[in-house]
Structure formats: C-alpha cells, structure tokens
C-alpha cells in the first residue's frame, strides 16, 4: 500500500498538474464511486493536501474529493501541464483509459485525470472541506513524521504499548503514514528488533528509531516512492525506492552493516525483514 513517501510524491505532482484548473466534467464508469456532477463540475481545484496515506483535492465550493488509494488505486494525469509525457508504466494495467479506469475528470485546459483501481479496495468521496479532519479515517490518525510527531510524543506512544514496535509503527491511529516497507527499514537503521515490545525500548533506541523513521521516509521521497503492487506517480511512472531498500524484501542477502544473512519472519501477518545480528 502506498505509504507517506508514495502519497506525498503523488500529492506534489498533482499540485503541479491540477491546481488552478477547473473540472469541466466527470465520467463515472463504475457505480461503486458516488460522485455527483453537481458536487464537482464547474469547480476550481484550489489545493491538494495529504493526511497520512489519504489525499484531499480541495475545490472552490468548499468541498473536497478525498481519495484513499489502498492497495492498487492510481491517480494519473495526462494533459498540457505534463511537458514531456513519459511512457506509461506497465503497472497501469489495461492502459489509459482502460478497463480498470473507473473515473475520468476532464479539466478546463484539455487535461484529464484518471482514477484506476484493479482490486477496487480504494475509495473516493466528496466531503465538505471543513469536515475532513472530523471524519473517522482522518480524525483518528496518529501524529505524523515531519508534521506533529515529536520525539516526546513518540516516546510516550511507545512507552504505553505492549505490542511489538513494528506493529505499533504501522498502526495508523498511533502514527500516521508509516507502512510495512518503511517500518522494516527504519527498524534496521535504528538497530531495533521488529518484534521487541514497544514499552521495552530504551530511551536511546526510541531516539534512534525516531531519527531512522524520518531518514527512511526522506529516502523514500527522494526516490519518488517504492513501486510495489500498483504504485505509480501521476505522470504514469514508477518510483525507485524498491531498488534502495535497506532490509525490506532482502531475505537471504547480506546485511549492509554486518554481512549476516537477512531473515524474514511474519509479524502480525506482515512480511518482516531484519538482521539477526545487529537488530536484537
Ligand atoms: Zn547486520
């Protein structure tokens, strides 16, 4: 699932391509998505914001198109704001528009943006802009790295949990934006075993992990996100972080610090990668 760096990469591109343009029409190709013409057509796109893994496209009528891409949702732009149109990633299954294109927004400048989703777990809703932060899915989000997750808050959250630290990192109601890839890498960077109970982390480990979370997220952003499953940026390209992971998806390869073989276990049902020597 796209995590903070992936959704932030999408947000930054959408800001470039969409902001200032007016939605001329919307074509709904799948009735699962309840967007009424009257809510969005004729409205100008004022801003694109991100709340952890959720995007908000804010319109001039004080409503927002809120998008959660979940596993395989994609937002892709085609139009004159894309100076040089890159080749479409093969992760855009069926092409553009294709059989997995469910919504097409047409803009005033001959631009279009498409919502694709192969597995159909993602959702799009139109919500009053001033109510977004009161909704269940955003109102309940925990503090976010780079935003409101301070070291003290992080310490406090960890000290109150008896779950494994990796499971805690991925709990969106505790910390917003971190998913499996970056949780694995942050724990390796901080030299903390993913299965260690959160409240048993030393102050030093908490501090190292706090810094490590920001560092891996920064790397994720630098590489335009990790293209697992269906992740592409709105220009239709893949990110590259998957080629630069520290430990994620590296089972059997030598640890980048001590050369021990990276192990894979399951923790709360999720693939968990760690170095048995330097994370204990
Ligand atoms: Zn190691």
From TrEMBL:
Annotated PROSITE patterns: FPG_CAT (PS51068), ZF_FPG_1 (PS01242), ZF_FPG_2 (PS51066)
Top-level lineage group: Bacteria
Known catalysed reaction(s)?
2'-deoxyribonucleotide-(2'-deoxyribose 5'-phosphate)-2'-deoxyribonucleotide-DNA = a 3'-end 2'-deoxyribonucleotide-(2,3-dehydro-2,3-deoxyribose 5'-phosphate)-DNA + a 5'-end 5'-phospho-2'-deoxyribonucleoside-DNA + H(+); Hydrolysis of DNA containing ring-opened 7-methylguanine residues, releasing 2,6-diamino-4-hydroxy-5-(N-methyl)formamidopyrimidine
Q: Which InterPro entries match?
A: DNA_glyclase_Znf_dom_DNA_BS, FPG_cat, FPG_Glyclase, FPG_N, H2TH_FPG, Ribosomal_uS13-like_H2TH, Znf_DNA_glyclase/AP_lyase, Znf_FPG/IleRS
- Boundaries of each FPG-type domain copy? 246-280
Q: Which SMART domains match?
A: Fapy_DNA_glyco (SM00898), H2TH (SM01232)
GO function terms (MF aspect): 8-oxo-7,8-dihydroguanine DNA N-glycosylase activity; class I DNA-(apurinic or apyrimidinic site) endonuclease activity; damaged DNA binding; zinc ion binding
- Report the SUPFAM superfamilies cross-referenced here: Glucocorticoid receptor-like (DNA-binding domain), N-terminal domain of MutM-like DNA repair proteins, S13-like H2TH domain
**Which terms under GO biological process does the entry name?**
base-excision repair
Asked whether the keyword Lipid metabolism is assigned, the reply is: no
Instruction: Indicate whether DNA-binding appears among the record's keywords.
Output: yes
| Reported cofactor(s) | Zn(2+)
Q: Where is the Formamidopyrimidine-DNA glycosylase catalytic domain?
A: 2-122
Keyword annotations for this protein, in alphabetical order, are:
DNA damage, DNA repair, DNA-binding, Glycosidase, Hydrolase, Lyase, Metal-binding, Multifunctional enzyme, Zinc, Zinc-finger
Q: How does it assemble?
A: Monomer.
The entry assigns this protein to a family as follows: Belongs to the FPG family.
Q: Protein name, please? A: DNA-formamidopyrimidine glycosylase
Q: Which organism is it from?
A: Candidatus Woesebacteria bacterium RIFCSPLOWO2_01_FULL_39_10b
């Amino acid at each position: 699932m796209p995590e903070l760096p992936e959704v932030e990469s999408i947000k930054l591109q959408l800001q470039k391509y969409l902001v200032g343009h007016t939605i001329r029409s919307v074509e709904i190709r799948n009735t699962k998505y309840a967007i009424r013409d009257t809510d969005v057509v004729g409205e100008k796109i004022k801003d694109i914001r991100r709340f952890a893994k959720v995007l908000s496209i804010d319109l001039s009528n004080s409503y927002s198109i809120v998008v959660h891409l979940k596993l395989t949702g994609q937002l892709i732009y085609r139009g004159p704001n894309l100076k040089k149109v890159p080749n479409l990633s093969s992760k855009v299954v069926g092409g553009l528009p294709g059989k997995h294109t469910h919504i097409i927004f047409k803009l005033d400048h001959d631009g279009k943006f498409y919502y694709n989703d192969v597995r159909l777990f993602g959702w799009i809703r139109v919500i009053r802009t001033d109510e977004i932060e009161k909704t269940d899915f955003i109102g309940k989000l925990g503090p976010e790295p780079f935003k409101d997750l301070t070291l003290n808050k992080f310490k406090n959250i960890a000290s109150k949990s008896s779950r494994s630290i990796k499971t805690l990192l991925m709990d969106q109601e505790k910390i917003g934006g971190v998913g499996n890839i970056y949780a694995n890498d942050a724990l390796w960077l901080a030299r903390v075993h993913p299965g260690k109970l959160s409240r048993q982390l030393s102050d030093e480990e908490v501090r190292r992990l706090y810094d490590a979370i920001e560092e891996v997220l920064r790397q994720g952003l630098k590489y335009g996100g990790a293209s697992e499953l269906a992740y592409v940026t709105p220009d239709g390209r893949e990110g590259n972080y998957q080629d630069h992971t520290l430990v994620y998806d590296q089972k059997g390869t030598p640890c980048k610090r001590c050369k021990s073989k990276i192990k894979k276990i399951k923790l709360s049902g999720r693939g968990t990668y760690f170095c048995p020597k330097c994370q204990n």
